[in-house]
Amino acid sequence: MKKLLLLFFLASFYFVNNAQAQRSGGTANSAGITIDFGDGSTLVGPALKHFFDRNNAGQVELLFGNGGTYLAAYYQYNAPIQNAGGLKYYVGIGPALGFGNGNTDFYIRPMVGLDYKIRDTPLNLAFDWRPAFYVGDNSNFTAARFGLGLRFSF
Question: What is the value of pTM for the model shown?
């Protein structure tokens, strides 16, 4: 658990200290909380998002729930929705590791969602569909998984 927290904070340090590209709205980073819910247990934990340039971003999440810990890293392509001030869509994919009950599980998590930066505030909201492909013995697919992000932009 300590190694996971250390990895999360190292990734956080990288995102915060390498903020060279500014996305529209003047922010390249956001940090907050993600709630991952749907079929199965609800997971909650800290999340960081960093824009490498106007359209390309990375997001890291450390989620907890139902006796497990999940570490995920995503690449996301973001683009504004015309005439919708502050609203963007994104598509992405990334790996996730699940730790619990003496096991380590590997998942591939694609996602598609909406990201809204509230004008004249540092608040950012996101909602996405993020199915989970479990890779391993008895591989399976869970379609009904969703994410809700509440973040502070800086």
Answer: 0.80
